[in-house]
Amino acid sequence: MRTTVGIIGAGPAGLLLARLLHNAGIDSVVLESRDRAYVERRQRAGILEQGTADVLRAAGAGERMDREGLRHDGIELRFDRTRHRVDFPGLTGGRSVMVYAQTEVCKDLIALQLREGGLLLFEAEALAVEDAGTDTPRIRFRHEGREDVLECSYVVGCDGFWGVARKAIPAGLTQVFERTYPFGWLGILADVPPSHDELVYARHDRGFALLSMRSPAVSRLYLQVPDGTDPAAWADEEIWDELERRFETADDWYLQRGPITQKSVTPMRSFVHEPMRHGRLFLAGDAAHIVPPTGAKGLNLAAGDVVTFARALVHRQETGSPELLDAYSQTCLRRVWQAERFSYDMTTLLHRAPGATPFEDRLQLARLERIASSRAAETDLAEAYTGFPFG
């Protein structure tokens, strides 16, 4: 089997890349180790930056997003029982974000790929990327009980942190930067309308809390919990009680409760692998970098990576110049490190570290008060949240 671009992973990055290449007349094959049902129900990110939403629209994958997604023009910061709204369009010249779950993005892109695009193989496990440093890389994979080889001109690893693509880059050429956090997020889905029409980020002495949503009828909420927490150890009423405490305000706002349909704990880490390219192998998304979810950057960084690759490959096809492909890692990493910086800032701004001192608590409040009282500080947050430019 042969193709121009072999794509490992049918998450939003791999599927979006396949769509961008299809629209540019470049053939590709997508290999996904899981079945379609798993990919379409895998709960992950839910916030699309302005640039990500624009790319989906331009790719022909934005119709349902614009019909069913929820445009958000701001977020609310909550601290010391006070509320402060950050107005995105007013601070960024009109930019906003879209609440539209990763599961829905994948459904839309899968439907397009199966109807119009190249080959998409589910339950096709990539075993190794071979000859990455040559002009003829190969993906060895298993599908329907047989081993096969996909010969490519380029390989893009969109296969996540545990995938095989990154392992094909010689260890002597790589550098890894990482940080783990001593807390995680206990997340719930609940069949209850959101208690606020925009996301609420709450800093509290008991820990961070986030009020989000998946639809007008389904709420998504999170609590900071110690690393290694078992979600089953929290009874439903305990979760609602704790959320109520952390979202407390001095006015008459209240938290609506409802049936909890899902509980999970998300660990928190920052990770960057450099470089993001070796020969004709290119890493994208979680295969190359991970951010704590506080800044809502994971899916959006992945989109930026594949947009950068697609533009670079089109440039090579049209001009014969490999300049943009050669610069792929450097180009992506500029954006990655800005997102890492923002996600770290938001995490340390809003989460209470174990053993935090009164001095550190007051510093957090001072930082929040600065955002609430300074247009410059507020603009910096709004620009980063709505998204850094692609490429």
What descriptors fit this protein?
eight-stranded mixed β-sheet; globular; 391 residues; 12 helices; 36% helix; alpha+beta; single chain
The total count of strands amounts to 19
* SS content category: alpha+beta
Mean pLDDT: 96
Major beta sheet summary = 8 strands, mixed
Helix content range of the residues, please? 25-40%
Q: Which overall shape is indicated by the principal axes computed on the Cα atoms?
A: globular
**Number of H- or I-type helical stretches:** 12
* SS strand fraction: 25-35%
Poorly predicted parts? none
Which value, in Å, is the CA radius of gyration? Answer: 21 Å
Give the distance, in angstroms, between the N- and C-terminal Cα atoms. 32 Å
Structural commentary:
With 391 residues, this protein is α+β, with helices and mostly antiparallel strands. It contains twelve helices and 19 strands. Strands 1, 2, 8, 9, 10, 11, 17 and 18 form an eight-stranded mixed beta sheet that branches. An eight-stranded mixed beta sheet has the order 6-5-13-14-15-12-16-19. Helix 1 (12-23) links the parallel strand 1 and strand 2 (28-31). Helix 1 (12-23) runs parallel beside helix 8 (298-319) and helix 8 (298-319) runs antiparallel to helix 10. The radius of gyration is 21 Å and the shape is globular. The model has no long low-confidence stretch (mean pLDDT 96).
